[in-house]
């Protein structure tokens, strides 16, 4: 896939996005905390040419503004809406993983006329124990950077080799080695807004067909999933065997099949 990057200028940030730029139905992909646009490459390849994939590199990450002052939930929502304005489309499917899924849900609640379907991957309502924010922030800040190479990072990261390789590919090559393409303190501030409260009212306002994709070893509290299904009985839930929080990276083929089946007919039950 060629590099077709677009950019939108917000009042306080630049937001870059990778765009296949075809006439096919658009699917906008939102990575999670500490992610990057190209982590969706396998997904974009699987969806092409049936769908036009647009992967947003969200504020605080990669080529977008690295240390924005505003990392509120509203800022992330407005960034996505600005990308939709730039694309000139009001019929997009929104797909987001983890914090990106939370952002996608808020966009669908805020602008229902612009979102045709919603997929939340390992993503819930937010909220939770405030100590969770600091735990994630401490982990990000503890990375023993710089890494000598991708193999050095994989040894640190552990787990699924493919997932580790995709994370490694998002590191920046600098003179002294590989370093993250984000600032830990900035991401910790952003995550605090997700953890500030459970966005139950916003979830209830989402009206488009919705799919929740969970890993077998999910990080989303079961109680939240039950609440989400009770409030919106039409939402579908699929659990992907052998996966953790990075479902789309841990099992890319299975994930692509689930996603494609849903996007082709969001109202059909996936069973």
UniProtKB/TrEMBL annotation:
<protein>
    <submittedName>
        <fullName>Alpha/beta hydrolase</fullName>
    </submittedName>
</protein>
<dbReference type="InterPro" id="IPR029058">
    <property type="entry name" value="AB_hydrolase_fold"/>
</dbReference>
<feature type="domain" description="AB hydrolase-1">
    <location>
        <begin position="25"/>
        <end position="252"/>
    </location>
</feature>
<dbReference type="InterPro" id="IPR000073">
    <property type="entry name" value="AB_hydrolase_1"/>
</dbReference>
<dbReference type="InterPro" id="IPR050228">
    <property type="entry name" value="Carboxylesterase_BioH"/>
</dbReference>
<dbReference type="Pfam" id="PF00561">
    <property type="entry name" value="Abhydrolase_1"/>
</dbReference>
<dbReference type="GO" id="GO:0016787">
    <property type="term" value="F:hydrolase activity"/>
</dbReference>
<keyword id="KW-0378">Hydrolase</keyword>
